[in-house]
Design brief:
single chain; 139 residues; mainly beta; OB fold (Dihydrolipoamide Acetyltransferase, E2P); five-stranded antiparallel sheet; three-stranded antiparallel sheet; 1 helix; binds zinc ion
């Protein structure tokens, strides 16, 4: 899960909402989230690319043991996702139940509010993935 403060959210909003990653001009591999260095080969010769918002769920884990203060989010479902261009990433899964998860199921990216900081009223957003339902409601 990628957690953002509001200032970082505004700075990086485009990158996260559009699901931008990087493409390495040396080894040709793509990765997410955007970083100044290619995680595959260490090259700094990278450029930003728009990643597809849909892909498939390669595997997943379900965690029922959640720290105090985050219990309302239990169980946490984490998925290893391969986007339609082959980019792999780990993300929290949302809008679904553990028993609905299947390997190789189609998934799509959505931006979800994950936490409101009571003291400062800061809203934290995270990119999550949910089962892709063709013809379902758009956001
Ligand atoms: Zn590389």
């Amino acid at each position: 899960m990628v957690r953002l403060s509001i200032s970082r959210h505004w700075r990086e909003k485009g990158a996260y909402y559009r699901l931008e990653g990087i493409e390495c001009l040396d080894c040709g591999k793509r990765s997410y989230p955007p970083a100044p260095v290619c995680p595959h080969c260490g090259s700094r010769n990278v450029r930003r690319v728009k990643l597809p918002r849909t892909g498939r769920l390669l595997s997943y884990t379900i965690t029922y043991s959640i720290p105090e203060g985050f219990r309302e989010y239990a169980p946490v479902m984490l998925g290893l996702i391969e986007l339609d261009d082959g980019t792999r990433l780990v993300s929290q899964l949302t809008d679904t139940k553990p028993e609905e998860l299947r390997e190789n199921m189609r998934v799509e990216a959505v931006l979800r509010r994950v936490q409101v900081d009571g003291e400062y009223g800061l809203i934290h957003y995270a990119l999550k993935f949910r089962p892709h339902r063709p013809g379902g409601r758009k956001e």
